[in-house]
Amino acid sequence: MAANNADRSSICPTCLQTFSNFQGRRVHERSQHPLVFHDTEVAALRTDVKKVRWNPEELVMMAAFEASDPWAKNINVRIQAEVLPHRSIESIKGARKGDTYKALVRQTTSSPRRAASMPAPRSPPLPVPSIRSESPTSAQCNTYCWLSFHSFNIWEYCLRGPQPPPRHLKSEEEVHACM
């Protein structure tokens, strides 16, 4: 039952017929006013709120900000105010609990040269000119190349091209040979 909880009366809003309870009204609406009934069901089930995933750029910006002052108090509030105003404090707390985020903060803290070279907290990452213009995948990496100080080298990851399958996976010929 996806009907709005605020309208749990026993009176049908379409034909104003009265029923003994809300359940009776819903049975009536479904059988006598199916278009209106299903439209209200769809509207009640449609939610504009969705779980927003963390973008790697946001995590890097947050880690760089935290690494710039590791002894700061109320770091979650400061991150929200100065780096990610569109994120809630609870979501920032949750993101900071992850092991990958903690490793990123440690890595950024251990190399102050890299933390100093980070862009300003609210500026979006700027594309960097391609080093290897003949590579078709380098264009895909331009946006993310400033993340190269992350725990992996993004250029190597993007430019190495398609990889063979892991050894534990058998080829099609090997699978058919076993049959």
Explain the overall architecture:
- This protein is an all-alpha fold.
- Among the domains are: 9-47; 56-110.
- Helix content is 48%, strand content 0%.
- The chain is built from ten helices and no strands.
- It has helices at residues 22-32, 34-45, 56-68, 75-82, 89-96, 99-110, 112-116, 138-141, 154-159, 172-178.
- The two termini are 51 Å apart.
- The model is unreliable at 132-136 and 138-151 (pLDDT under 50).
The poorly predicted ranges are: 132-136, 138-151
Strand content: under 5%
Helical segment count: 10
Mass-distribution shape: flat
Order of helices and strands: HHHHHHHHHH
The class by helix and strand makeup works out as mainly alpha
Distance between the termini: 51 Å
Question: Which oligomerization state do the chains in this entry correspond to?
Answer: single chain
Major β-sheet profile: none
**Chain-averaged pLDDT:** 75
- Taking all Cα atoms into account, the compactness measure Rg is 27 Å
Tally of strands: 0
Q: State the helical fraction.
A: 40-55%
Region (Disordered): 108-137
Organism: Portunus trituberculatus
Protein name: Retrovirus-related Pol polyprotein from type-2 retrotransposable element R2DM
Domain C2H2-type: 12-33
Task: Produce the secondary structure layout.
Layout: H1 22-32, H2 34-45, H3 56-68, H4 75-82, H5 89-96, H6 99-110, H7 112-116, H8 138-141, H9 154-159, H10 172-178
Helix pairs in contact: 1-2, 3-6, 4-5
